[in-house]
Design goal:
alpha/beta, nine-stranded mixed beta sheet, 12 helices, FAD/NAD(P)-binding domain, eight-stranded mixed beta sheet
């Protein structure tokens, strides 16, 4: 069953899925029913492909059913780093793909009448005075290099939008936004199913046999197909070590208040701050404040989650120091060393996408769509995304954990010093 989140308790869609108990043949098998896998499935069935989706848990069980729901422009890293890593031409193309990702969300919500509380407006707020210099540089790069209009606003304008005096300015992007991620994912799944996609839950892939045809085995069945899409992301585990070593699952957590007065975040936009270990927040369709963030760089669930989040909220909204929480939950997002998504082919007929590093609501949707288009013979966008220079993580798990601990201490010191 789904984790006990606000999203699970307010979901509006329940596509009919069953457990796989037989042998099935299709054109494309997709492992994972999050936004990447379901987006790929929807694009493929729209093009006439026979599609099977395999999910180890319930549909949208992972990050796609738990995330902050923020729709952010950009492929995953800040613009300056993207320029350095990709070069100007590819960085501009990648940024344009991220804008197409936002439009794809709006298109699908409209086309399939998906009820997911889609709202416009997104901002990065300066948590310290000196962070404004970086935000101004980032805005200038988006405007002048990527041709993308955003607004740099001062502390007073930021206070008017957030209802808080805690910030020193912001980048405001009216084109960004936020949504109910589980309802969006399940709404897409229902649309794909109505066009012929077969959805199987509680059917984990246990083994993969590669060849001209790909055979995926589950505990009680198997699927043979021409193509395979690996879309399990942070929950891939050890199913395919060749790609799981390029990303790490990191815990991200959210607490939801009861519905609040309109003076809390009156702009009703999505917000995240400029710290390394940042907080993010938004209001849902009923006026609740959903406050999220990372408590570390691992996937270990914190024992004192609500106390941590309440302390962070009180620094921004002192009047909410004792606010109760209706729900609190967490899950894993996948991130890469350079915080760029990881796309590629394991073989000519095996595609994958993972490591969205906090930009998954938009980029996972376009990621799945680009995989589907590549399968259909239109691979230009997928090939561009596959050129991102993603590095493998250390094979030594002890060294990996020690490195994460050192990074956590470093980021906490950086945030404390401003």
């Amino acid at each position: 069953m789904h984790t006990d989140s606000l999203y699970a308790s307010t979901r509006r869609y329940a596509p009919q899925a069953s457990q796989l108990h037989t042998r099935v043949q299709c054109d494309v098998t997709i492992i994972g029913s999050g936004m990447t896998g379901i987006s790929a499935a929807l694009e493929l069935v729209e093009r006439g492909y026979r599609v099977v989706v395999l999910e180890a848990q319930d549909l949208a069980w992972g990050a796609s059913g738990r995330s902050g729901g923020q729709i952010i422009a950009g492929a995953g890293e800040d613009g300056a780093s993207m320029l350095k890593l990709l070069g100007k031409e590819d960085a501009r193309k990648a940024f344009d793909i991220s804008l197409e990702a936002i439009e794809l969300i709006r298109h699908r919500v409209s086309q399939y009448n998906i009820d997911c509380d889609l709202k416009s407006g997104q901002m990065e707020v300066a948590a310290r005075p000196k962070h404004m210099a970086h935000l101004r540089q980032a805005a200038e790069l988006m405007q002048n290099t990527f041709g993308y209009p955003v607004d740099v606003i001062d502390a007073q304008q930021t206070a008017e939008k957030t209802g808080s005096q805690a910030y020193y300015g912001a980048i405001f992007d009216p084109n960004g936004g936020h949504l109910h991620p589980m309802n969006y994912t399940l709404g897409m799944a229902q649309a794909a199913q109505r066009q012929g996609a077969q959805l199987f839950h509680h059917s984990p892939a246990t083994d993969i046999h590669y060849g001209q045809k790909v055979l995926v085995k589950t505990p009680q069945g198997e699927v043979e197909s021409d193509f395979l899409v690996l879309a399990a992301n942070a929950y891939l585990n050890r199913l395919e070590p060749a790609i799981s070593r390029y990303m790490m699952p990191v815990g991200s957590y959210i607490c939801a208040t009861p519905p609040l007065p309109g003076d809390i975040l009156p702009a009703d936009c999505a917000v995240f701050d400029s710290r390394h270990l940042f907080s993010y927040f938004r209001r849902d369709g009923e006026g609740r404040l959903l406050w999220g963030g990372r408590t570390g760089l691992t996937d270990q669930y914190p024992d004192n989650l609500e106390a941590i989040m309440r302390k962070r909220i009180a620094k921004v909204y002192p009047q909410l120091a004792d606010v109760p929480f209706e729900k609190s939950w967490g899950g894993n997002v996948s991130t890469t060393l350079h915080r760029l998504p990881h796309f590629g082919r394991l073989r000519s007929n095996v595609y994958f996408a993972q490591g969205y590093s906090g930009h998954g609501v938009a980029m996972s949707g376009i990621g799945g769509a680009t995989i589907a288009r590549a399968i259909a013979g239109q691979a230009e966008q997928f090939d561009l995304l596959s050129r991102f220079p993603v590095k493998a993580l250390p094979d030594n798990r002890l060294a990996h954990s020690a490195g994460l601990a050192a990074a956590l201490i470093y980021f906490r010191i950086r945030d404390a010093l401003g």
